[in-house]
Amino acid sequence: MGYDRVRRRDPAVADALDGERARQNDTLAMIASENHVSQTVMEAQSSELTNNYAEGYPGGRYYGGCEYADDVEQLAIDRAKELWGADHVNVQPHSGSQANMGVYLAMLEPGDKILSLDLTHGGHLSHGHPANFAGQVYDVSQYHVDPDTGYIDYEAMREKAEEIKPDIIVSGFSAYPRDVDWERFQAAADAVGAYHVADIAHTTGLVAAGVHSSPVGIADFVTGSTHKTIRSGRGGIIMCDEEHADDVDSAVFPGAQGGPLLHNIAGKAVGFGEALEPGFQDYAEQVVANAAALGERLAEHGLELVSGGTDTHLVLVDLRPSHPDTTGKEVEEALEDAGIVLNANTVPGESRSAFNPSGIRAGTPALTTRGFDEAACREVADLIVEVVDDPDDGAVRHRVRDRVDELTDRYPLYDESEP
Ligand code: DSN
Q1: Cystine design at 29: which of 99, 193, 332, 366 (Cβ 3.0–4.6 Å)?
Q2: Coil, strand, or helix at residue 89?
Q3: What is the rounded CA–CA span in Å between residue 182 and residue 239?
Q4: Which superfamily does 280-410 belong to?
Q5: How far is ligand 1, taken at its centre, from the CA of residue 173, in Å?
């Protein structure tokens, strides 16, 4: 795929597009929420469906001209049902946050109560942070991880639910490295008459492949995004029982959104089709094995992993015990200079600010797509530690950059012969 037309007509944008392509090829993408979708997904995502308006749902649109939009959306829905085993699926949310908004709008009135995990303990903005609509429209209380173990404190969460009687309990996280006991969340919700929303944005692919436990069939609602571990077109998804199907569909459209982004839904359909192929199971297993190898190696070098390890695609490092004077932001910037892209992250018991926190978060979905195995991830861990030990040393960053170049050459991003 080239940008030949853009280059001829709009060189300024072409420069940026080519720059981003080179950046992704030449660096190690370790932002845990990122991945590299296939060229097939990208081709579908850039189709003429970007021109189409299709308010409504397949078979019931408000505009004409939706014959092929219906085909694409129904394919995405059917494939999603097969992947996750859900009764009802809405593939229209523009993002994971919009998926959460869809469920809140469907089930809550302004001022109703949400109980969710604190952002600094691994939650998400759309679970009720004051800077987000969810925190502004609803009355939000938070539960936490156990500061000693880094695992969800399920008993404290249950007690908090008993105390505040929420209308919705949100589970599912953006910086939590462990498997989740969805049944305990559902039991806590059932005990107080709340709905349970499981946000699997990060783990959609791991859940679909069966390498992470599934909330589908347990939680009242499952939300997620579609471009992270599931590696399909960009956007969000909601799953629920038939009982709540109409409420959810009306909340997404016309409640929260206008016309669906059918070109992205085409990318979702293609990516879901790829995830139904047998190779996806191997991919998801490798993502988890790679994160385990990365984490073990970082720990061998003396870095402290929140919860002591990982069951998922990500590791969260608390720099304070090993490097008390080094912040996550310093490490993020130094690593980016060396060609390794991850993010500074708050950690449980955070003592700094969200802008300059004490941790780093690193994920393996994108490296695994490039073909990295456990040995390559251990090499990456060695490189990360070299920079963490000396973030201000330009010679170290230069040496690591050379090693990153070797790795990106060894594992090229896109194979031009890809069918
Ligand atoms: N920005 C994503 C993440 O990094 O977790 C989720 O919104």
Answers
A1: 366
A2: strand
A3: 15
A4: Aspartate Aminotransferase, domain 1 (3.90.1150.10)
A5: 9
The answer for residues whose C-beta is within 8 angstroms of residue 236's C-beta and 6 or more apart is 93, 94, 95, 96, 97, 98, 99, 201, 223, 224, 225, 226
Compute the distance between CA of residue 399 and CA of residue 319 in angstroms, rounded to an integer: 22
Report the SS3 class of residue 377: helix
Residue nearest to atom 2 of ligand 1 (CA): 33
Q: What ligand 1 atom has the least distance to the C-alpha of 34?
A: 4
Q: What's the CA gap between 261 and 52, in Å, rounded?
A: 8
Q: Give yes or no for residue 345 CB within 6 A of ligand 1.
A: no
Q: Please tell me the CATH code under which domain 43-275 is placed.
A: 3.40.640.10
- Same CATH topology for 43-275 and 280-410: the answer is no
Report domain extents, the chain.
43-275, 280-410
Question: Among 174, 225, 343, which residue has the most ligand 1 atoms within 8 Å of its CB, making it the best to mutate?
Answer: 174
Does 33 sit in the ligand 1 pocket, CB within 6 Å? yes
How far CA 111 is from CA of 30, 105, 139, 190, 198, in Å, comes to 38, 12, 5, 21, 21
Minimal-distance CA residue to ligand 1 atom 1: 33
Beta bridge partners of 139: 113
C-alpha to C-alpha distances, 15 to 26, 29, 140, 248, nearest whole angstrom: 16, 21, 44, 41
From first to last of its 419 residues, what are the pLDDT tens digits of the chain?
679 999 999 999 999 999 999 999 999 999 999 999 999 999 999 999 999 999 999 999 999 999 999 999 999 999 999 999 999 999 999 999 999 999 999 999 999 999 999 999 999 999 999 999 999 999 999 999 998 999 999 999 999 999 999 999 999 999 999 999 999 999 999 999 999 999 999 999 999 999 999 999 999 999 999 999 999 999 999 999 999 999 999 999 999 999 999 999 999 999 999 999 999 999 999 999 999 999 999 999 999 999 999 999 999 999 999 999 999 999 999 999 999 999 999 999 999 998 899 999 999 999 999 999 999 999 999 999 999 999 999 999 999 999 999 999 999 998 766 65
* Cα 5 to middle of ligand 1, angstroms: 32
Q: What atom of ligand 1 comes closest to residue 175's alpha carbon?
A: 5
